[in-house]
Protein 1
Amino acid sequence: MIRYPAMALAAAFATPVLAAAPAPAPDLLQVQAHLRAVSTMTANFEQIDAYGRTRSGVLTLKRPGKIRFQYEKSVPLLIVGDGKALTMIDYQVRQVSRWPIGDSPLAALIDPNRDLSKYGRLIPAPAGRILVEGKDPKHPEFGTITIGFTKAPGAPGGLVLAGWTVMDAQGNRSTVVLSNQQFGMDISDKTFLWRDPRPQSRGH
């Protein structure tokens, strides 16, 4: 079953997160500075679902608003964000699903103008790491999102996005781990177009 981890990934973007602090902590300000310093990014990703199954692919990000998760050839899925919603295209069953991005820490990844302190809080992390957690107490069924950053002096804002974990209300965990992060390259807007697999569709 290959759709579960992709749906968890989509939920990470779509889930509203409310965890405001009176004033952002220094590390949270550094995260915000990193997000605003990155205009484009590519990375390899590895996604592990609650059953230990792994899918991999390439993440492409272009701010503001655009993101693409291109899975390996054996996985007939594609996830694309346009700043307003996240679209999951399942080419195996010819289905397209769309979620509003909403207010969440991962939404802040593609819109650096958002105030991350309104959506997330710092949690204890190992040396050299920053962890930001978000959850909505009004909707516990949405679960918890934890985003990890690694301190890297040569990277934008001194940080590199390392990945994130989504934990649902039933305790199921889906984790995305990033590697080979690169910044500042030219990325065409055509990268974020996708073919609509639904019959009699005009496509995109």
Protein 2
Amino acid sequence: MKFGIHAGLWMKTWADDPVPIFKTASDIGFDGVELSLLGIGADRAELIGKQAAEYGLELTCSTGLGPDADPTSPDPDIRANAIRVLSEAVTITNMMGGRGLAGVIAAPWGVFDPLNKVARAERSAQTLGQLDSVLIDTGVTLGIEALNRFESDLTSTAAEACAIARASGSKHVGVLLDSFHMNIEEKDPPAALRAAGDTLVHYHISDNDRGVPGSGRYDFRADAAALRDIGYDSWVVAEMFVMAGNPASRDLNIWRDIEPDPTEAAVQTLKYMREVFSHDS
């Protein structure tokens, strides 16, 4: 397993300089940092990758789509724009030295059209499948995130996300499963992980309130057992959002401080990750 921390734990805006975060994450002992591409373009990508490497860190990336780049749209021009936007995100990920890009990529965040889910899922899979060549060329793997019902109607469960990934026809398109969302949507999160099998390419953790794993009621040890059962040996990334009162937190509906200190939360989290998810645990 590789243990990472999402830079959003500390960020006030998505365009914040990540270098102080790299230093903190490295000092704590994380293997890598996950960066949102919402605030990073090609102009900064290579430099950021070098800066992370100077601290001995690997990078993973996440992103999200807007309605003008909707892979599910019946409008072919909008679907074509989704391919352009995601291709650029894959390229930026590669420029930073990242091998994984995951997030809200099957449909735009907050767009709901439940009466047309079947057709939308089909178009999403077809659109994402067209990224296969750029994924092969860059060596980047794409992960469709399963989001709770308040953020998406298309991929609210692991099964829905996995179905789109498999229907894409690309071996380089998989799924990102996240304990925060599974806590809401899955009756049995470990069973969802086992059913995902080798479709699982990325795994996020935070407790039920998006705070420190192990501080709430989510059963991470059961998830860890499921990951071992399917032979998952990639990233476990803590995606915590704990600070109220800044633009990034407003995007995620964080209206109160979840933890008193982000850095101490990261320290506690890595200790817990090593205890629960290491192969010898």
